[in-house]
Amino acid sequence: MPCSSSINPVDFVTQVEPLLEKRDLPGLLQLLKSRWTYDQLKDLMRSPHHDARKVAMLALSLVGGRCAIPVLTERLKDPEPCANQMAEHALWSIWFRCGSDQANVLIKQGADALEQKQLEQAEKLFTQAIEADPTFAEAYNQRAIARYLAERYPQSIEDCQRVLERMPCHFGAWAGMGHCWAHLGETSKAIECYSKALEINPHLDQVDEALTTLRCQGECE
Questions:
Q1: May I ask the CATH architecture of the domain 9-95?
Q2: pLDDT tens for residues 83-122?
Q3: Within the chain, how many helices (H) and strands (E) appear?
Q4: Domain 99-164 has what CATH class?
Q5: Residues 181, 175: Cα–Cα separation, whole Å
């Protein structure tokens, strides 16, 4: 049974790193469950011990679940760039496996189709993932991306809104909705969405650049 005391950061890194290097996911999951509680891992991600914080986030990117999302969202504001990037990566990884088993398979197939620029096939697979699990926020987000790439901005916005109903911290959906509003010429709405995305994740450089551009355009008009 996991103990209730705080984690020794050096001991944590020593035990977890070999499993990460081997990508032994079953072994990693078993170790985390048997040795430490979620609250301990949560506290570790707030630790001043940089290596332990990073290893904890990397471990959660591989085996973490929905319960890890709030504390990883906090770490998006970590002043250390590497830690911020790892928190962002961990969130995307968890978001992609928050659906049912069937939905998780379908979204992976859809993502592969999207990477191949097969937009219609990708949208079809994302829709099937949504039908398999209507609570699956990332399935709506990926369909929003497919619709955005197809220049179907109103439909993409609708999907982004569905994402945010289920996952308000989803900075990707806020940014995507901002892109759509910008293409539709709705500058104030785009600025609002970009600002919200940056409030959650202040290290989105491209979103920051887009926001600055829109604000400059507004000042020049």
A1: Alpha Horseshoe (1.25)
A2: 889 999 999 999 999 999 999 999 999 999 999 999 999 9
A3: 13, 0
A4: mainly alpha
A5: 10
User: Domain locations in the chain?
Assistant: 9-95, 99-164, 169-221
Contact in structure between 54 and 82 (CB atoms under 8 Å): yes
> What is the DSSP-derived secondary structure letter of residue 212?
H
- Specify the CATH architecture of the domain 169-221: Alpha Horseshoe (1.25)
169-221 shares the fold of 9-95: no
| Residue 91, helix vs strand vs coil | helix
Structure tokens, 79: 């002043």
Cβ contacts of 188 within 8 Å, gap of 6 or more? none
Name the pLDDT band for 1 (thresholds 50, 70, 90): very low
Q: What is the Cβ-side half-sphere exposure of residue 39, based on CA atoms within 13 angstroms?
A: 5
Amino acid at the residue 218: G
* 110 token code pair: 């859809």
16-72 residue pLDDT tens: 989 888 888 899 888 888 888 877 887 888 888 888 888 888 888 888 889 899 999
